[in-house]
Design brief:
It is a single chain. This protein is mainly beta and 203 residues long. The chain is built from 2 helices and 15 strands. The protein has one domain: Jelly Rolls. A 7-stranded antiparallel β-sheet has the order 1-2-13-10-15-8-3, covered by helices on one side. It has a 4-stranded antiparallel β-sheet with strand order 9-14-11-12, with no helix packed on it. It has a two-stranded antiparallel ribbon with strand order 4-5. Bound molecules: N-(carboxycarbonyl)-S-(naphthalen-2-ylmethyl)-L-cysteine and fe (iii) ion. The site of N-(carboxycarbonyl)-S-(naphthalen-2-ylmethyl)-L-cysteine has 15 residues, from strand 8, strand 10, strand 13, strand 14 and strand 15.
């Protein structure tokens, strides 16, 4: 069931499927304290993906730039704590992909509705690029766009389904990536939405 996409990138197909209902219940709990919101890009555009965070640091974007912040700017309070179920899943997935001792401090939760996309970008707001990123896909399927170290590198399309976990590290850590506009659909656990959890060591 494990698929190597390339150096440093591995899909653990269905790895989170059995605990998906619990993960989604925890996302709902987080969102009661820190609601999903569409953030502004530094250029002043509104992102189509709705986001929230849990953990001791959360990823935020506004007209001042991108950063990790211990506080939710909407409430002025710390982000909800990282549930033990989340931290444990991220550590088990990283370990299976060859990264031992992964202790994430940040979980960005992205919510996509049909038509929503994430344009090609790199994740470079973290301190230590030797730490991997673990991502968990829930609900509606998506086509993940996977490029290379340069923005102009050829882009591969990788279908991601409910319960799939992907671990990105080492030479894959700084590749350009994105999500193709979500196709219309309905999922029994998430409705008309895809949820993606990304676990990172931010600070
Ligand atoms: C490859 N999220 O939040 S997860 C993001 O499905 C983000 O919501 C997408 O890109 C999503 O920044 C993709 C897979 C992923 C996450 C981070 C990566 C792939 C990555 C970092 C480096 C390389
Ligand atoms: Fe990303």
């Amino acid at each position: 069931r494990d698929r190597v996409l390339g150096p440093g990138a591995m899909v653990l197909a269905g790895f989170a499927r059995a605990i998906a209902p619990d993960l989604i219940a925890m996302v709902d709990m987080v969102a009661r304290t820190a609601p999903f919101r569409r953030m502004s890009t530094p250029s002043g555009r509104t992102m189509s993906v709705a986001m929230t965070n849990c953990g001791t640091a959360g990823w935020v974007s506004d007209t001042k730039g991108y950063r990790y912040d211990p506080m939710d700017p909407l409430s002025g309070h710390p982000w909800p704590a990282l549930p033990a179920l989340f931290a444990d899943l991220a550590a088990r997935a990283a370990s299976r992909a060859g990264f031992s001792e992964f202790h994430p401090d940040a979980c960005l939760i992205n919510r996509y509705e049909p038509g929503t996309r994430l344009t090609l970008h790199q994740d470079r707001d973290e301190h230590d690029f030797s730490q991997p990123i673990v991502s968990v896909s829930l609900g509606l399927p998506a086509i993940f766009l996977w490029g290379g170290p340069a923005r102009s590198d050829r882009v591969r399309r990788v279908p991601l389904e409910h319960g799939d976990v992907v671990v990105w590290g080492g030479p894959a850590r700084l590749v350009h990536h994105g999500i193709h506009p979500l196709t219309e659909g309905m999922h029994p656990l998430t409705g008309r939405a895809r949820l993606n959890l990304t676990f990172r060591r931010a600070m």
